[in-house]
Amino acid sequence: MIFENTRAFAQQLDSQDSLNKYRDEFHFPKVNDKEVIYFTGNSLGLQPKRAKAYVDEIMNDWANLAVEGHFYAEKPWWDYQERFAKPLSKIVGAKPLEVTVMNTLTVNLHLLMVSFYRPTKNRFKIICEEKAFPSDQYMFQSQVNFHGLKPEEVIVEVKRREGKHNIRTEDVISKIKEVGDELALVLIGGVNYYTGQVFDMKTITAAGHEVGAYVGWDLAHAAGNIKLELHDWNVDFAAWCSYKYMNSGPGNASGCFVHEKHHDNQELPRFAGWWGHNKERRFKMEAVFDPIQGADGWQISNLPVLSLAPYLASVEMFDEIGMDALIEKRDRITAYLEFILHEIDKEVTSSFEIITPSNPSERACQLSVFLHGEGRSLFDYLMKNGVITDWREPNVIRLAPVPLYCSFEDMYSFGQILKRGILEK
Predict the structure, then answer these.
(1) Mean pLDDT throughout 235-253?
(2) In degrees to the nearest 10, what's the CA dihedral of 232, 234, 239, 245?
(3) Whole-number pLDDT of residue 283
(4) Handedness of CA 410, 412, 413, 414 (dihedral sign)
(5) Are 399 and 389 spatial neighbours (Cβ–Cβ below 8 Å)?
(6) Per-residue pLDDT at 271 exceeds 90
(7) Do the Cβ atoms of 122 and 94 come closer than 8 Å?
(8) Chain mean pLDDT for the chain
């Protein structure tokens, strides 16, 4: 499609967009009495309007039923998490038995590493990407220390080539082969939080398995954003947060995936708890742990249903729409934003460098833009003029045009505000 940098053209794209109606399903903050242009769904998604009804339902059940709400609420609390299995499995490309919700992201990654990072004298190294999200880096370091090993001898980072912003798949594969028999675990962010690069998870997973390592993925920026086929890719495990692209609310519950090939492995250790015990026998208070079949068997505590309620509201919205429709709009609106940036770049003296891959198969719903010749003052101008975006040192703004609630007209309007911010400085 040939794009145009005009409001009329952007409005035309919106009129043709089958998902445009979902914009009205969300609450937008306001700046200067106008709804903002919201580009930070990669940090915290907007609140779905239907979320309140889901929370109110639990509050009412708590008021009217108290403890009996566990069994007699309209959505009984004791198995509330089971409502996520089918819709979440479609979002991440899994079987319903392979997914669950519990805890928060880094907690779940720690728990999954109990099962899937089992260092031995000869096989003990972990491969991750350079500039992984800090929480992942701290997790790796503390896990390695817990096992009495030294992080500098265990953690192997795949680095970017000199002068490049993104990591090449062949370099990941090369590093896996180089570490070889010493490799215990590959654990990488499926979408890099800083650049927005999407990794070739299928190829990297296969390469890790070829040398005998487990392969897991941190899908914080991937779940609800890209096409995932975790089961078919033979991924061992994965976890993701729900408050970014799935709009569940700040710090909300995490999702987990454990491939079915591991479900019956009695030698695979895990940290156990009451809620992971055989559901049919849970209230018999038995002394010996008998895990639920499937990913639910990795649960520890009963679930915080007040937190799960807005997540369920959003997941059911995803189920209505389907990932294919979301991805189709994601690709078009991201391409239009890219076009707008290049058009504005021609009209001003500054130079923008988009460090996110230009290949649509290597990016998702984020463009990270290096603002050469500009500084923090431009970011501040955008924020004061109703563009909610994200700043990353040294000089990058991250723009996430989330297809559920961003419009093509938003992209055009952003371009005009950006231009004014540069010309008026």
Answers:
(1) 97
(2) -30
(3) 85
(4) positive
(5) yes
(6) yes
(7) no
(8) 96
Distance CA 121, CA 119 (A): 7
pTM beyond 0.90:
yes
Q: Tokens 């099962």 sit at which residue?
A: 115
Phi, psi of 186 (to 5 degrees): -110, 125
pLDDT at 424 over 80: yes
SS3 for 187?
strand
Annotated binding site: 105-106, 133-136, 218, 221, 243, 274, 302
- Cα of first residue to Cα of last residue in the chain, in angstroms, is 34
Closest CA relative to residue 223, chosen from 274, 273, 174, 257: 257
**74: burial class by Cβ within 10 Å (0-12, 13-18, 19+)?**
exposed
Give the C-alpha separation, 130 to 115, whole Å: 24
The pLDDT tens digits of the residues spanning 207-218 come to 999 999 999 999
Residue numbers belonging to the annotated binding site for pyridoxal 5'-phosphate: 105-106, 133-136, 218, 221, 243, 274, 302
Residues 305 and 385: their CA atoms lie apart, in Å, by: 37
Spell out the domains of the chain, with CATH numbers in brackets. 7-35+323-423 (3.90.1150.10), 53-321 (3.40.640.10)
**Nearest residue to 402 (alpha-carbon basis) of 101, 87, 43, 90:** 43
- Six token digits for residue 123: 């096989």
Split at pLDDT 50, 70, 90, the class of 251 is: very high
Q: How confident is the model at residue 20 (pLDDT cuts 50, 70, 90)?
A: very high
Report, in angstroms and rounded to the nearest whole number, the Rg of the chain calculated over CA atoms: 23
H helices present in 357-407, as ranges: 376-384
Q: Is pLDDT above 90 for 100?
A: yes
Structure tokens that stand for 382 in this block: 């955008």
Q: Which two tokens stand for residue 40?
A: 């930070």
**Mean pLDDT calculated for residue range 373-402:** 91
Contacts of 220 (CB under 8 A, 6+ apart): 105, 133, 189, 191, 193, 240, 241, 244
Task: Report the amino acid identity of residue 386.
Answer: G
